[in-house]
Amino acid sequence: MTLLRNLLTRRAMLLIAVLVIGRSAALAQETPKVKFSTTAGDFVVELYPDKAPKTVENFLRYVKDKHYDGTIFHRVIENFMVQGGGYDTHYVEKKTRPSVVHEGREALGKGGSKNVVGTLAMARTADPNSASAQFFINVNDNAFLDPTLIPSGDPVPKFEYQGRVYENTPRANLLSAPQLFGYTVFGKVVSGMDVVQKMKSVPTGAGGPFPSDVPKTPILINSATLVK
Fold first, then answer.
1. Domain containing 60 — which CATH number?
2. Residues 6+ apart with CB under 8 A from 75
3. Run of H or E residues at 155
4. Lowest CB count within 10 Å: 35, 70, 152, 202, which one?
5. Alpha-carbon distance 23 to 26, whole Å?
6. How many separate domains does the chain show?
C-alpha cells in the first residue's frame, strides 16, 4: 500500500510539473513582440498584456492598422528618452482613436517595470488619461516618471511625496492627483537596443512646430509589424 501511495504521489507531482511548464510555455508564446524597422536600424519590443492589458491592446491596434508606418521620432533627448508615433515626415499629426485609460499604477502594482533604460511607455499630455498613439523609449532611468502607489486606508494615515509628509489624507484626493499618476510602462526593447542608443545621440534642433529636440536628419519608422 505504501509503495502504491508513493507511486501515485510521484505521478501526481509529475503531472503538476508538466502542467506548470506547459502553462509557462503558453504564456511565453502569448507575449506579443513588435518589430520596428527604421532608417536608423531595427529594434524589437516585447509587450506586457498581463500588466497593462488596455494599453497593450490599444498599441497593437495601431500596429495592425499601420498607423506607425511613415511616422518619425520627433522628440529625442539624449539623457532622457526618444519619442515617436504621432507625426509624419511633414510634421502633420496623424489622427488617433479615443485615448486609453491610464494603467500605470495597476501595471506597477502587478509587478510591472518602472521607467528604466529600454522600457516602452505611453506619451501623454498633462491629463493622465490622454495617451493615444505616441510612445517613448526610456534611454535613462527616469524614476520621476514612475507612477506613485497609494498606501492602503481611507483616509491614508501617512503619505510621503517629494520629501513632504501628508497625514490623514482622503484617499480620493491622492488617487486623483495628476502628479501622482506617472507614465504607463507596457513593454521593453528586447533586441536592437544599440539602435535606440544610436538614435538618442543624433544632432537635434527645431523642426516643424517644435522649437527643439527634433532630429536634424529625420528618423523614420518604415514599418511596425507584429512578430509571429
1. 2.40.100.10
2. 81, 82, 83, 84, 136, 210, 213, 214
3. none
4. 152
5. 5
6. 1
Measured CA angle at 125 (ends 123, 129), to 5 deg: 80
Q: Note whether residue 164 is domain-resident.
A: no
Give the pLDDT confidence of 112-145 residue by residue, as tens digits.
999 999 999 999 999 999 999 999 999 999 999 9
Q: Which amino acid is at 188?
A: K
Place of cell 492589458: 53
* CA pair distance 221, 38, nearest whole angstrom: 4
pTM: 0.85
Residue 207: Cβ within 10 Å count: 18
Q: Are 181 and 104 in contact (CB under 8 A)?
A: yes
3-state SS, one letter per residue, for 41-110: EEEEEEECCCCCHHHHHHHHHHHHCCCCCCEEEEEEECCCEEEEEEEECCCCECCCCCCCCCCHHHHHHC
